[in-house]
Amino acid sequence: MKKVIIAYFSQGGTTAKVAEQIAQGIKEKNYDVDLFNMQDGKPPDINQYEILGIGFPVYAFRPPFNVMDYIKTLPNLNGMPFFLFYLYGSYPGTAGNVVRRALSKKGGKEVGYTRCRGEDYAMIYLKRGYLFSPGHPTEEELSNAYAFGGNVILNATVKTYAKPQYDPQPGLIYNIERFVLLRPFVNQLYSRFYIVEKEKCNSCGICIKKCPTGNITTNEKGFPKWGRNCISCWYCEMSCPLEAITCPADWFIMEPFLKYNIKHAVSDLSIDKVKVTLSKGKVKRI
Ligand SMILES: Cc1cc2nc3c(=O)[nH]c(=O)nc-3n(C[C@H](O)[C@H](O)[C@H](O)COP(=O)(O)O)c2cc1C
Fold it and tell me: In angstroms, rounded to a whole number, what is the distance separating the alpha carbons of residues 261 and 240?
């Protein structure tokens, strides 16, 4: 039987849900599917597969760094059909373009591109009282993902694929935010400024478990310390039950940008939202 690999990253589980549905849609067309979560160690050898799928959440209007790292490790795709999908909470920017271009540059042939809203656990918004896109992906979005899976196989085999246009650039403010969160800044600068309040931290290790890149270890006193492979997901701070961690995302210079993002998304009727509180690592709807 022909085989498809879907390689995805999913911190909050929404991308994983969509990946699962796409896989079901593909299986319906008598293809075998392997799902590979990029957090699960060594990736399988791509040469065993006929079609490659990539799934990821949008982080700061682009794909997360670890997803780009995975793509970099791929050999030349030599015309291998690929598809991609991403999850986003409010405004995705050009996250899709970046991955489409990278896979095409690797020699892949695009046969599917889709996106879907996903519950947005960006700490910066939760802390300020908002959960965007709650309850997404919905049942309808999941059944669209299932149908997308079937279409990908048709596009790769019998149909002519009409490649969608590339997405437009986001506005100036979002471009600035994306710039501020470029990888060299995140890894060489911000990751040096995570603060742990030693009076609060009890070395429970939750932040270490939550870090998707294994970037957090402990120092000689048992307190968390950050390496240079941060993807700025801020799950460490968000999940800390003792609120002992402060990320650079909390720096006051970020405040005007966050206010702008929230105001924009709150007034946008196409984006679902609910009011929440984030306290001691738990999100509660108000
Ligand atoms: C650190 C962080 C940054 C995010 N940045 C964006 C963004 O720029 N635009 C957007 O629309 N959604 C953004 N999101 C929302 C996620 O893309 C969305 O919630 C997605 O469904 C999460 O996927 P997952 O549940 O598989 O981790 C961000 C989420 C996090 C945690």
Answer: 25
Task: Give CA–CA dist 284/286, Å, rounded.
Answer: 6
- Of all protein residues, the one whose alpha carbon is nearest to atom 22 of ligand 1 is 57
Assign 160 a pLDDT band (cuts: 50, 70, 90): confident
Burial class (CB in 10 A: 0-12, 13-18, 19+), 266: middle
Q: Residue 3 gets which letter from DSSP?
A: E
Q: DSSP characters for 57-115?
A: E-BTTB--HHHHHHHHHS---TT-EEEEEEEESS--TTHHHHHHHHHHHTT-EEEEEEE
Handedness of CA 164, 168, 174, 229 (dihedral sign): positive
Query: Model pTM greater than 0.85?
Result: yes
Residues with CB under 6 A from ligand 1: 10-15, 57-61, 87-92, 118-122, 232-234
d(Cα 90, Cα 123) in Å, to the nearest integer? 14
Mutating to test ligand 1, I would choose from 6, 88, 119 the residue with most ligand atoms within 8 A of its C-beta, which is: 88
